[in-house]
Amino acid sequence: MNTLRILVVGAGVGGISVARGLLRDGHDVTVFERRPDMRAGGGAVTVWPHGSTVLEQLGVDMDGAGQLLSTVRIATSTGRPLVNIAVNTIVDRLGGPVRMVPRRILLDRLLEGFPADRIRCNLRATAAFNTHEGVRIQFEDGSCADGDLLIGADGLHSTLRHIVGGRPAKPTGWCSWQGLTTVPHIAEKDVAVQIIGEHGSLGLWPAGGSDLQWWFDLRHPAGFVRPEHPIDVIRSSFAGWSEAVDQVLATLTDDDLAASPFPHFRHPIPRLPRLSAMTLLGDAAHTMPPALAQGANQALLDTMVLCKALSDFRDGSTRGNGDLASALRWYEKTRRRRLTALSWVTSRQISQSQSVLKRVAMISDSFGTWAMTGFLRWLSHVRISSEVDRDVSRRPAHL
């Protein structure tokens, strides 16, 4: 079988990434999206070196997009420096840039050169099942589509996750009040700031030009009732943490917080039936708290590993048992261990007492950078990435 008929549900970063990779590899791909168009909302995302590597493999030009970062500066709410992560050092060691980029720009770059007739909007999936010839998906309007396999990339509230029997996401008890705002002045445009206190944490990350991605993390208990004036709650919780924080707080209004809060969830990563021709990707498979800014990067790594699994299956590799379902299970197993560890790390306590933070402050900048570099390298599937680089260089692109 030289060409697989692949159905992708969800046209976000994960869905378009995997569709782009599969088209590159010569497969017949159709993407289904419940939104009426491809306009992306949301704030900005961080693309770490492993995400940058996958984007390069996909032929996505990111030059000039967002803001390249040189440093992540972490401190306490009392002004005590904790650690400065030397992002430039991570870039030198891992070989890919680190940038903060608005989600809409990232999706626009992914869509450059992507055939528009491969995306079908205004289609909400309601059911899917395995057939003797592959899979069938049914939509709310009564239509259906058939393929050899189905990829659910439809996000946190995934319909496909429910269909394949995945358990619901679990709330962590925290949430983010966040947004992407144009500010009059950013003193250090290549420096990201994170501040940790006893009752919450925050981030101020430049996203290119005068754009600033900001977030304020607070507890989100069961039965949470949204305050009438959330900006007052945010100011009372975070005012005085730093001069830059106070400047941002002075510019924000309740309107800037209208879409918030965004509760943090953690997915139990599902194990799909052995013979199923369906799989999941991105937040549909493994939503996790945003503590390490890994959401988009993990969807991109899913893309790389899944494309490799299907490429090896088509080429007759011995990975799995030589059938399509085994190739999908190999992809899921390959990703599961790293994702489980990452999910555990990101689910740890967001706030910390001053006594704990005092001990953390003893960590040197060089050790913090070394640890972050090692962790990112471990997440990156270095061997598979090298194989994909070799395969891409040898094979003529279809996209």
Please characterize this protein's 3D structure.
By secondary structure, the protein is of the alpha/beta class. It has 13 helices and 18 strands. It has helices at 13-24, 49-57, 87-94, 103-111, 159-163, 230-238, 243-251, 283-286, 295-314, 324-346, 354-360, 365-379, 382-394, and strands at 5-9, 28-32, 44-47, 67-68, 71-76, 81-86, 99-102, 119-120, 125-131, 134-139, 144-147, 149-152, 170-182, 191-196, 201-206, 211-219, 262-266, 278-280. The chain has a seven-stranded mixed sheet. Strands 8-2-1-12-18 form a five-stranded parallel sheet. Helix 1 packs parallel to helix 4 and helix 2 (49-57) crosses helix 9 (295-314). It is globular and about 65 Å long. The protein starts with a strand and ends in a 5-residue tail after the last helix. 45% of the residues are buried.
Query: Judging from the principal axes of the Cα atoms, what is the shape?
Result: globular
Strand order of the largest sheet: 6-5-14-15-16-13-17
Query: What gyration radius follows from the Cα positions, in whole Å?
Result: 21 Å
Mean pLDDT: 93
Low-pLDDT runs of 5+ residues are none
Strand fraction equals 15-25%
Number of strands: 18
Helix proportion of residues, in percent?
A: 25-40%
Distance between the termini: 20 Å
Largest sheet: 7 strands, mixed
**Discrete helix count:** 13
Structural class: alpha/beta
Features:
single chain; alpha/beta; five-stranded parallel beta sheet; 13 helices; 18 strands; globular
